[in-house]
Specification:
This is L-threonine dehydrogenase. By secondary structure, the protein is of the alpha/beta class. It has two domains: 169 residues, Rossmann fold (3-Layer(aba) Sandwich); 198 residues, Dehydroquinate synthase-like, alpha domain, CATH 1.20.1090. It contains 13 helices and nine strands. Strands 1-9-6-4-2-3 form a six-stranded parallel β-sheet, with helices on both faces. It has a three-stranded mixed β-sheet with strand order 5-8-7. Helix 6 runs parallel beside helix 8 and helix 10 crosses helix 11. It is globular and about 60 Å long. It starts with 10 loop residues before the first strand and ends with a helix.
Length: 383
């Protein structure tokens, strides 16, 4: 077994109502002024006000950047950075789902390392830790509040840059499921399927290890038990909390075992057509895993078992096929579109999408290493 390194924020608060305690604990860091990075919807809903009031009580003043796009861009990072410098902020707080977290990571990394965010595309390109980042999560999906992954769209090149860097890991992550209660059905489904994709890709990854395996399988079980419930009834507090834990476990798995072709391909769809990341993952997941059977049938059978399928009488191949069926069933049950055609994806773009997918940092750990024509075929099957 190769040497494993395990990355995670040093402090992680999880559970219903943990926000106040988490913000209060920020006093100990000695911060004076925070840049809150969020989106306009959370600002309109009053969630930003709630956090800034808690910060004031902790003796920390704040200024808000709420311009984060659903697929955060280089321009978002630059705008947030300008506001940070203008107000001499000494820390960054991301509030929301993956989009604000990734945008905040970009801002905090460039704030301390200089240059432009594109300089850090790839793995561990930065020299210094980013400005301290505290990530308050409001969705159960991306796990960006606790990972070393930062995905920023380069609008000029129409691609999503994958920045995988230990220095973008937040110092504190907060998963208060009370903040997730109001999440709409579509977002709940997409982010939940994103978390399932993280767990599945981490489990079949060539960089998997016993720690990531344990996290991935537990995440799969919890998502299988809770995602449908919470999509049907957004106010189900127990299911919301279970999903908060599940997506965190999936994050622990992929933050250390990395991902595979599903993410490498989904990043291209998001960058090219500005599509929702979780939906792209959900559509691609069964097709890529069917392709992976040739190298990972036994592992996919384990996932089927974690999803509640009785695999005791099945061969590895049968178990793997049962896993793919179960994934399709869950995606259908939570209302995920049937194929990429519904999302406006065009066949003439497959070559460019496949070329860029193979250059994505996530492609390296897929259990089967394919050619450009293999990846084009996967896009075609997912239509």
């Amino acid at each position: 077994m190769a040497v494993s390194t395990f990355y995670i924020p040093s402090v992680n608060k999880i559970g219903s109502g943990c926000l106040a305690e988490a913000v209060s604990s920020m006093k100990d860091f000695g911060f004076h002024k925070a840049l809150i990075v969020t989106d306009s919807i959370l600002n309109q809903l009053g969630v930003v006000d709630k956090v800034s009031k808690l910060l004031t009580e902790a003796g920390i003043s704040s200024v808000t950047y709420d311009g984060t796009a659903p697929n955060p861009t280089v321009e978002n990072v630059e705008a947030g950075l300008a506001l940070l410098k203008e107000n001499q902020c000494d820390c960054v707080i991301s509030l929301g789902g993956g989009s604000p977290h990734d945008c905040a990571k970009g801002i905090a990394l460039v704030a301390s390392n200089g240059g432009k965010i594109a300089d850090y595309e790839g793995v561990d390109r930065s020299a210094k830790p980013q400005l301290p980042l505290i990530s308050i999560n409001t969705t159960a999906g991306t796990a960006s509040e606790m990972t070393r992954f930062c995905i920023i769209t380069d609008t000029a090149r129409h691609i999503k840059m994958a920045i995988v860097d230990k220095n973008v890991t937040p110092i504190l992550s907060v998963n208060d499921s009370e903040l997730m209660i109001g999440m709409p059905k579509g977002l709940t489904a997409a982010t939940g399927m994103d978390a399932l994709t993280h767990a599945v890709e981490a489990y079949v990854s060539i960089a998997a290890n016993p720690i990531t395996d344990a996290c991935a399988l537990k995440a799969v079980t919890m998502i299988s038990e809770s995602l449908r419930k919470v999509v049907d009834n957004g106010g189900d507090e127990q299911a919301r909390e279970n999903m908060a834990y599940a997506q965190f476990l999936a994050g622990m798995a992929f933050n250390n075992a990395s991902l595979g072709y599903v993410h490498a391909m989904a990043h291209q769809l998001g960058g090219f057509y500005n599509l929702p990341h979780g939906v792209c993952n959900a559509v691609l997941l069964p097709h890529v895993q069917a392709y992976n059977i040739q190298a990972a049938a036994g592992r996919l059978k384990d996932i089927a078992q974690a999803m509640g399928v009785d695999v005791s009488a099945m061969s590895d191949e049968q178990g793997a096929k049962a896993c793919i069926e179960e994934i399709r069933k869950m995606a259908k049950d939570v209302g995920i579109p049937a194929g990429l055609k519904e999302l406006g994806v065009k066949e003439e773009d497959f070559k460019t999408l496949a070329e860029n997918a193979l250059k994505d940092a996530c492609a390296i750990t897929n259990p089967v290493q394919g050619t450009e024509s293999d990846v084009i075929e996967l896009f075609r099957q997912a239509m």
